[in-house]
């Protein structure tokens, strides 16, 4: 695939394509399981800590607005994967956490993610995978590769 002007795809297109491949693989792996969740729901579940998290913090963690997160949580709650309880430290606040059913699917998701990483590492080689992973960690932390000063 090339860009609009015929140049090779830019890095954001490549990252998007890689994430699409991963999402489709994840959805295919869990397709036979008794739910009708999309990749974005599976991602939310994979990033929801066992101990739970306030919706505002969870929204920031997954990169969603609090309103969008609320819709996703409502869907996941109705399907029995997430529960929302009062925060024991502040009864006005809420905590979102996986249910037992959610924890089982979360474990499956994490297994699939691990299998995908292993497969990709095998395809590109351990050295290139290590470099790729290091660069992504730096970018995600807001640093350029080799910039340890921040």
From TrEMBL:
One of its GO terms (molecular function) is DNA-binding transcription factor activity. InterPro entries: HTH_MarR-typ (IPR000835), MarR/SlyA-like (IPR039422), WH-like_DNA-bd_sf (IPR036388), WH_DNA-bd_sf (IPR036390). It comes from the Bacteria. Gene3D superfamilies: Winged helix-like DNA-binding domain superfamily/Winged helix DNA-binding domain (1.10.10.10). SUPFAM superfamilies: Winged helix' DNA-binding domain (SSF46785). SMART domains: HTH_MARR. Pfam families: MarR (PF01047). Residues 8-141 form the HTH marR-type domain. One of its GO terms (biological process) is response to stress. This is HTH marR-type domain-containing protein. It comes from Catellatospora chokoriensis.
